[in-house]
Prior knowledge:
The complex is a heterodimer. By secondary structure, chain A is mainly α. Chain A has one domain. Chain A is built from 5 helices and 2 strands, in the order H-H-H-H-E-E-H. Chain A has a two-stranded antiparallel sheet. In chain A, strand 1 and strand 2 form a beta hairpin. Chain A is globular. Among the domains of chain B are: 212 residues, no CATH class; 264 residues, no CATH class; 62 residues, no CATH class. In chain B, strands 1-2 form a two-stranded antiparallel sheet. In chain B, a hairpin with a 4-residue loop joins strand 1 and strand 2. The longest helix of chain B is centred in the middle third of the chain and has 33 residues. Chain B is elongated and about 115 Å long. Chain B: Belongs to the CPA3 antiporters (TC 2.A.63) subunit A family. Chain B: It is a multi-pass membrane protein. Chain B: It is found in: Cell membrane; Membrane. Chain B: It comes from Thalassobacillus devorans. Chain B: Keywords: Antiport, Cell membrane, Hydrogen ion transport, Ion transport, Membrane, Sodium, Sodium transport, Transmembrane, Transmembrane helix, Transport.
Amino acid sequence: MIKTNDLILRTTTTLIAFILFGFSVYLFFAGHNKPGGGFIGGLMTSAAIVLMYMAYGMESVAKIIPINFRVVIPIGLLIAVGTGVGSFIFGQPFLSQTFAYFQLPILGKTELATALLFDLGVYLTVIGVTMTIILTIAQDRKDETA
Amino acid sequence: MLFAVLLPFLASIFIPFLAKWKDRIHTGIFVTLVPLVIFIYFIQFLGTGFQPETRSYSWIPSLDMNMNFYLDGLSLLFVLLISGIGTLVAFYSIYYLHKSEQLGNFYVYFLIFMGSMLGVVLSDNVFVLYSFWEFTSLSSFLLIGYWNHRRGSRYGALKSMLITVFGGLSMLGALVFMSVITNTASIQQMITEKSIILNHEFFPLIMGLLLLGAFTKSAQFPFHIWLPDAMEAPTPVSAYLHSATMVKAGIYLVARNIPIFADSEWFFVIVSGFGIITLMWASYMAVRQTDLKGILAFSTISQLGMIMAMLGFGTKVAIFAAVFHILNHATFKGSLFMVAGIVDHETGSRDIRKLGGLMTFMPITATLAILATFSMAGFPLPFLNGFYSKEMFFDATLDLESTSNALAGFMQQALPYLAVFGSIFTFVYSMYFFFGTFRGKAQISELPKKPHEAPIGMLISPAVLVAGVIIIGLFPELINKPFISHAAASIYGGEIDKHIYFWHGINLPLIMSIAVLAFGTILVLTRTKWEAIYRFIPGPLSMNKVYDGSVKRAETYSERITKTYMNGSLGRYFRLILGAILIITFGFMAATTGFEFNMAYSAEITLAEILVAIMMAVAAVGTILAKNRVAAIIILGVVGYGLAILFVIYRAPDLALTQLIVETVTVALFLMVFNHLPQLKMRKQAWSTKALNLIISIGFGALMTLVAISAHSSKWFDSISSYFVENSYKLGGGDNIVNVILVDMRGLDTLFEIAVLGIAALGIYGMVKLRSNKEEDA
Lengths: 146, 778
């Protein structure tokens, strides 16, 4: 592959990727009360990562984010199932969610819901799935051209 | 009694272990003991004061399927035949089968067969009877195909299996019918309630199915064709299964059900009609055979036809004669098969054209053969049992109860002549069998082995059977009162007081016998002159051709049908599936007037919606017409984004967000994947296929639209969404109702959806990464 001088892309990427990532984290946390949630948040995060891959190439990003995305899928699923199994400890049926308000040091009065943990599972699974699919197909293409 | 039935099954479990020592002790020695024990156990029931006995053992009481055994005269006759001839055959097989054969297999099949045959004749419960019945078909299949490296064995085994299982299933139908309408599974109770069966509207069906089972098992015309091919089995098997026991299972079934069915006049017409046709056809065909066992096979068919005919008569003398002939046939036919086996074993050939003049080489075998064949022919000598039963057969044909049925009346007139005709040919093939094998010019050079007398052990079993022929012939009264009359009585349903004499005085049956003798002798002496007749009858016509043709046709037709609708084209499958849905749904909805149009629930349509809808419609049509694949994908994306806009308009922000991103990702993935594919080529399709596709797709779209409109037009229940609106914050702690439903109220769905995503990702990974191995191989 011929390396073109993609300085502008790389420079903007450093900026945009973080904005994207921040937006996705916002979407994830806002999900309970505003549009958003684990699914969209996960997709957005993947978009940020894909952008970095496009700008910097496989090897560099693999060094920056040394995560095997295939492992993220079972981790996400485990968290999601774990929140469901966790309700057994309190003698509740599978996947019973609850919430409460806490007085946290910096954030003040905050609502903490177990549903957020479940959403975290969704979030991680979605990242794992999208990244696995895209990277698998992309690498396959590279193998063929090589 | 249970023990007697289960003993062979139990023994068969141990045979494989015993068969390991076969180099030192022939496995047959152990096996011989099993029927011997059973025979000794049952022989003590013999006697003039015999009373039927019942034994019940629970099996599946809730379904009325119990191991109920009933031992009456008829069962006892069969049990003694099975165990007695079983002993002799097992003993004979010790000398017939070499130790290098797979003796374990042989004796396991043999014992399973024996046990199931005992089960058939002892069972009172129809379901147990049927179970054992199928076991006999199965073990007989295994035994016929014993030398499975031979093509003929496999063909014969398959043929017998198809025909007998066909009949067995018909019989099951009849038994279930009878059991349901009489509300009992016991044959004895059915007999007491026979009026229910006789007056039932399905009575013809019941009798037809039952007789179909009996006729196929007992090789009656036109189902006789499996028996000659079953001669590929080892000779002990032919002697046991195909002369003495299994082929008589159908006879037993008919005899057992005579008390129920005999009142119907069609019973006489069908059973006797088929019996007499079988008798004539098979005895006529037997003369044509060149294989010793082929002659005996057709002879067996013909004798079974004779017994069947007599059972159909239903008169006292006929039933007595039938029972007597069952016993006689078992003795002389069993010994003849063993003689054929000896000839085969000692000369290496069963072809009667190569054999001849063996009398000097095998004097003992020849003596046994002459006694058995003359008994089979019904030769009037006072020490041959075949004569007695044949004479009674003639007597029975002349002594039929008068009937009002025209067909039955005609049959009664014709029967004596037909019986004589069949007997003439019986005489001819009996003489042909004996003289063709043992007399005439010896052709030693033609034979694979130099003929010599068989070892003494091989001769014992046929000798015992021939001794039976002579003892019954000399002292027929010996077995009459304590044995035969019980069996006949249990069929007839009343005492039968009949005496067996050799000399009746000069009467019509004797004259018929003499006529058989005279015509038979003429035909035997002139056999070479009239043999050409077989070129015209049956000539090219044969039931085997019908069987082969129907098997082949069933295969080709089913193949053709499968190939017509399963041609591997996905397009065709889609057309079939969608077409079926179209026809069924449209038909159902039209018939039940399920389509409903009601504008009451419709909302206002805004300009934005109309514009987006037009855009999406144009894009959808564009996708179909696009010649380039990438273009098609991108235009399809327009539809997806249009949908996202619609979500926005309908105030579904979460859906709109997700739809936007997912649409982008799918388009990107499509582009990535399609980059690998070759250029889209215009496929040449017949315009009729195209038109059909168009009709089906438009029809399906119209159907779905109509269904959607109808569903919307009729609101039968209130929506449950108000519950979510009210409780989203109270119970889930969130304002975003969609999200609360997804993660809290219906979290399980989400859990499995992300599981689906995970599986899809791993699937893609697996497909892409593991693909390379196969390509390297190629």
